[in-house]
Amino acid sequence: MPTSITLHQLQYFLSAVQLGSLSAAAEAHYIAQPSLSEQIRRLESQLGVSLFIRTNRKLILTDAAKLLMPYAERTIRAAEEAAAAVDPIRTLSGGMVALGTFSSADHLLHTELIVRFRALYPKVNVRLVSQNSVQVADSVRDGELEAGLVALPVDDRGLDVGPVAWSMQAVFLSRDPSHTRAPTTMADLARAALILPEVRWGDMDPTRRQLLSRAQAAGVALRPVVEVESPAVALQLAERGVGDTVISLALARALGATTRLHWAQLDPPLHETFAFITRRDAALSPATGILIGLARQLLTELPDGASGAVAVPGL
Question: Do 268 and 306 have their domain in common?
């Protein structure tokens, strides 16, 4: 039973039928006649029948060729329709693009990213999925998302993790100015009434993992008095005097918290680093590649951050 008939073979066959000769068919496809003749012979071998009676003057179709013609035409037409169906994806004239991002990117990145992308490609729909970086990595690994922008480190099984695309400083924030007169050590954090975000993921969260590692190295324990999901809520609680928190400076400024809270660097400084991830060896769609390129450009424009590779102690 035939298993390796190709579209090219069927196209060559139909051209030979329509043009009446192998030489004319070869010329129409811009290939040498011996190459086209070899493909016709392979097609005949796969089918187990002869398709043409070759004479010096013209090709004569066999009964098998007459039976094959409508099937070959439908096959070629179906292939053309299949290519046309995905053409909007290739030409960015339709379809959808999706990107996962770390949870606070909606405050820092999403609005301008969508505005810029839609200005370039107004017919492509956009989905930006804001989740904890652990979730984004899982979604990319499982094929639910084509790519993501995550805080490092993440579980990289089955993923290609790009170089650090951006880095931002995490700082200690408090309503009490006496708490921020000097850089905040791990011992200071251990004594603080600490409010930490990302409660669902806890110590799996990349920033919390850094804090936990530093606390263990310093021989202290971090026991937050309040844990919430949203960094914005953590900042609001700090503004109300419930406690102090550790949040990226860029996010705190984006949310207007630095006008109401005092802040200090951590000692040693703590940087949250971010990179784009994709499934290992995956080929990105054109829209996803462009969306990532725009996101990279936006990251260079964000305040309180650094673009490119950054050396981060403890990572």
Answer: yes
pTM value is 0.71
What one-character-per-residue DSSP string does 246-264 give?
A: EEEHHHHHHTTGGGTSEEE
Q: How are beta strands 59-61 and 147-151 bridged, if at all?
A: unpaired
60 strand-pairing partners: 53
96, 77: one domain: no
The tokens for 170 are 């995490």
Structure tokens at 280: 């290992």
Domain count, the chain: 2
Alpha helices (runs of H) in 29-62, residue ranges in sequence order: 33-47
pLDDT digits (tens, 9 = 90+) for 142-191: 999 999 999 999 999 999 999 999 999 999 999 999 999 999 999 999 99
Amino acid, single-letter form, for residue 238: A
The string of pLDDT tens digits covering residues 36-63 is: 999 999 999 999 999 999 877 788 999 9
Contact 21, 59 (CB under 8 A): yes
Give CA–CA dist 144/139, Å, rounded. Answer: 5
Structural domain contains residue 2: no
Q: Are 293 and 276 in contact (CB under 8 A)?
A: no
- pLDDT grade for 309, boundaries at 50, 70 and 90: very low
Mean pLDDT value across the chain? 91
Which residues in 243-263 are b (16+ Cβ under 10 Å) and which e?
bbbbbbbbbbbbbebbeebbb
93 band by pLDDT with thresholds 50, 70 and 90: confident
Residue 278 identity (one-letter amino acid): T
Q: What is the CATH number of the domain that holds 27?
A: 1.10.10.10
* Token pair belonging to 267: 């000692």
Residues whose CB falls within 8 Å of the CB of residue 117, separated by 6 or more in sequence, listed in order: 97, 124, 126, 290, 291, 294
Cβ of 304: how many Cβ atoms within 10 Å?
17
Residue 276 lies in a domain: yes
